[in-house]
Amino acid sequence: MTDEKEKIKTDLFRQAMRRFAATVSIISTVSNDGTPHGMAATAVTSLSFDPLSLLVAVNKSASMFEPLKSSGFFCVNVLHSNQRNQCDIFSRKEIRDQRFKVGNWEKNENGIPYLTDAQASIFCEVDQNINAGSHSAFIGLVLNVITDELIDPLIYLDGGFLNNTEAKNTSQHILNKETKKYKSTTQNLEGIDWLW
Amino acid sequence: MTDEKEKIKTDLFRQAMRRFAATVSIISTVSNDGTPHGMAATAVTSLSFDPLSLLVAVNKSASMFEPLKSSGFFCVNVLHSNQRNQCDIFSRKEIRDQRFKVGNWEKNENGIPYLTDAQASIFCEVDQNINAGSHSAFIGLVLNVITDELIDPLIYLDGGFLNNTEAKNTSQHILNKETKKYKSTTQNLEGIDWLW
C-alpha cells in the first residue's frame, strides 16, 4: 500500500474511532520502587467471565508501560462525569506533577493506587501481555472490585465529553489551542490514544 | 476462593461493567459456505495504530465464533442511535431469522457482510486469536474503513440505552419481561456479553 493510501486509511480509522462513545478510566499501577504510575484510557473492555477478566490497550511509549509489565498488577478506576480533572491530569504532561496528589488516592495490599471516589475500581493481575505493534494488550484477571452507588460515567465522544456541554467546550478549546504544540509531538500527550 | 466469595466478586464485576457506557456494534463475518454470521457487541476497542488494529471479545459459545475463526475476516458495524432494531435482531434468538434481512446489508470483496447505513464499517483481517477462557480476543488488522457523516452512536449503559428515553424504557421493559425466560438460560441470548 502506498504511503498516501495508508495515510487515508489511518485518517478513516481515526474518524471511525471518533464515532465510538467510550467511558474514561484511569489505569493505575506501581513500579518496583513504589512510585505510582497511571494513564487516562478509553481502550478498556470486558473480556471473559470464566475466569473474570478485562483487557486494556497500552501504548508502549506510555510512562506506565514498563511499570505495568514489571509489577503485573493494575487497577481500572472508572471515572464519574464530574472527574474531568483526573482525566486532564492523567493526559497532559505539563500537569503530570498533580498525578496521585489531586483526589482521594489510596493503596491496596499490593501497593496499587486506586481512586476511592471513582465509579468503580477493578483490581487486576496481568495474565497475558500481547504484543500488537505500537501497543500491547494487557489481559487482567479480576482480583477484586469496589463500586460506588452512582452510575454516571465520564463519556468521551468525537474529541469531547458527552452530557456535559461545558466540559466538552473546554476540551475542544484545549485541543484546538494545543494542536500546534502537540500534533506533531504526540509523545507529549500521554492520553493521545483515546483522543481520536 | 469459596464459591460464595467468587459469586460476590462476579456480581461486583458485573456491577462495575454496568458503569461503562459503550457503543453498540454488529460484528459480522461469513462461514466457508457463504452464510453470514453476526452478533451485537460492546466489547470492541481500538488497540494499535502501527499497525492499525482493533480488538473484539467473542464468547466461544456464540454462533459466529467458529465462522470467525475459519474465515479470518470480520467487520465492525458501528450502530447509529436509531438502529436499536439491529441490536435487538442480533441479540435475540427468537428473531434471529431477521439477521441480514432487515437493513441495508451488502458484501465486500471477501464476502463479509456490512451494514451500509451504519455510522462506520471497519473491515479487518484476524491477526491474533487469544484464548481467554469463556471468550477469545480477536485482534483485527484494519483493511479498510467506511464512515458515515453523522456522529451519533447507539450507547449502552446500565442495561439500557443512553440519550433515548423511549428506547431505554423499551429495553428495560424487554429485559424485565424476559428475565424469567433468559436469566438462567443465557445461551438463548447471543448478546448477553454486553447485557451487564
How would you describe this structure to a colleague?
Two copies of one chain form a homodimer. Chain A has one domain (21-194): Electron Transport, Fmn-binding Protein, Chain A (Pnp Oxidase, Chain A, Roll). Chain A is α+β, with helices and mostly antiparallel strands. In chain A, the strands form three sheets. Chain A has a seven-stranded antiparallel beta sheet with strand order 3-2-6-9-10-5-4. Chain A has a three-stranded antiparallel beta sheet with strand order 1-11-12. In chain A, strands 7-8 form a two-stranded antiparallel sheet. Chain A has four helices and twelve strands.
Quick tags:
196 residues; alpha+beta; homodimer; three-stranded antiparallel sheet
Quick overview:
Chain A is an alpha+beta fold and 196 residues long. Chain A has helices at residues 3-18, 65-71, 84-89, 165-182; strands at residues 22-23, 25-30, 36-41, 44-49, 52-59, 73-78, 105-107, 113-115, 120-131, 135-147, 155-157, 160-161. The first copy, chain A, contains four helices and twelve strands.
